[in-house]
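Holo prediction — thiamine diphosphate.
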Amino acid sequence: MALALKRQGKGRVAMTWFGEGASSRGDFHEGINLAAVLRVPVVFVCNNNQYAYSTPLSRQTRVPDIAVRAGGYGIAGTIAEGNDVLAVYEAAKEAVERARRGEGPSLLECKTMRMRGHSEHDDAAYVPRQMLEEWRAKDPIQGFEARLREWGILDVSGEARITKRLAEELEAAVAWAEASPFPEGKDMEQGVYST
Ligand SMILES: Cc1ncc(C[n+]2csc(CCOP(=O)(O)OP(=O)(O)O)c2C)c(N)n1
Ligand SMILES: [Mg+2]
């Protein structure tokens, strides 16, 4: 997609997201190397949530940060505090602008934590409780709310209004999904491929 965007020449940038576990796979290394060589406009965003399923970071790789892998491909690598919405925004903006200037791909690593299991059947018993508690204190939504309150952008009534609106939106979406007919096979590719 990034190569197509480059050829279109409209200044558009592709972004892709993956886990730190996925960044040890061969296709990651091949893809990021080719993207660097072709200087295509793409931002590789690694959601480093400390675990690849049940495998902790220290048993996945010898590098302390996934972002250092960028050096092996001659592209920019940046680390952002993944639970800080504005830090991620700033780092992503810089990477997108770099791509738009024709300077090719970037690797942006967002440090975060997976607060639940890998999937619903996984109780994440392998994660030390202490570690979870430390990350719980850095909850991205609560942290952002606190900053908005500090800056006088959000007050108690505003917060209540947003919470109520979101609950209503969610309820309406669930009701809509439950009332919808079961999808048919022919619709399988809808929203998946662009023509
Ligand atoms: C090629 C391949 N090997 C192994 C697996 C099994 N597997 C499923 S998820 C996972 C870990 C992925 O780690 P990460 O990218 O950090 O994602 P997270 O667990 O944080 O969602 C593995 C090894 C797989 N799905 N595909
Ligand atoms: Mg992970």
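READOUT: The radius of gyration is 20 Å.
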